[in-house]
Amino acid sequence: MYKTLMDTVGNTPLVKIQRMVNPDTNSVVLAKLEGNNPAGSVKDRPALNMIVQAEKRGEIVPGDTLIEATSGNTGIALAMVSAMLGYRLKLIMPDNMSMERRASMAAYGAELILVTQESGMEGARDLAQRLQAEGKGKVLDQFANPDNPLAHYQSTGPEIWQDTEGQVTHFVSAMGTTGTIMGTSMFLKEQSSAVQIVGVQPTEGASIPGIRRWPKEYLPDIYDDRRVDRVIDLSQDVAEDTMRSMATQEGIFAGVSSGGAMAAALQLAQEVENATIVTIVCDRGDRYLSTNVFPTGNVTHG
User: Fold this and answer.
1) Per the annotation, does 109 bind a ligand?
2) Is 71 a catalytic residue?
3) How high does pLDDT run on average in the chain?
4) I need a surface site. Which of 98, 102, 215, 279 has the fewest CB within 10 A?
5) Modified residue N6-(pyridoxal phosphate)lysine is at which positions (predicted)?
6) Where are the domains of the chain?
7) Any binding-site annotation on 180?
8) Residue 150: is its pLDDT beyond 80?
9) 5-36+155-281 carries CATH number 3.40.50.1100
């Protein structure tokens, strides 16, 4: 029978990093290419699951208005799923997010509400709750919604276990809402408690789209630090340099948070022996072009 768009979420490729890994290491680094999801990021998984599960519980019905605070990828994914299933969507985001992200959300029919860069995601989250209190829609709340990590427990974790034939020793993920690392950790640790779960966050003052160093009062409710064995802090420069190297050395065109996760995975490969390290490449690089993090290239006129 024919597939629907919903059926194409997940089952993304897991590929071996070839040129960026130090040839002296005997560890393997594998990248899960989440940009292959239909809306282009790992957030397609929780976006679909949050809406479908809320529907099953009778909390929402098609035609309702959904509200979400987002820095980009979740908003794009929710916009796709809302369009597919017949929901109206209000997205609230800081005004320093890339134009490509805004344009993608609008293309799916979402309404965008911008808060200032100074207000940040904390301000966006506060406004989302206020709009819900005013009766203007339902907040899905990716930061506290258990259906976010559940999506990764049910799909991302099992896919990694299957594709590595149970050989994965380390899982590395950037931490934003923390849904990816929480759900994947839960599944992998059930298969083998020896699997090491490594989170990546920005150094103090760094601004890396998709990764946050949350103030304590805004730490996502779904986050449980017992599910993370180690947290690596990475600077914005390292994340961006690694992101560019991924494109030029591996042919993997991804965003800055993916560069941060890859940098941490490559660091691990230098520290451990005979490891199978899996990292999440959470989106595609084309939604960052207007931010000038990529070179304009060697362009000449003939």
Assistant:
1) no
2) no
3) 93
4) 215
5) 43
6) 5-36+155-281, 43-139
7) yes
8) yes
9) yes
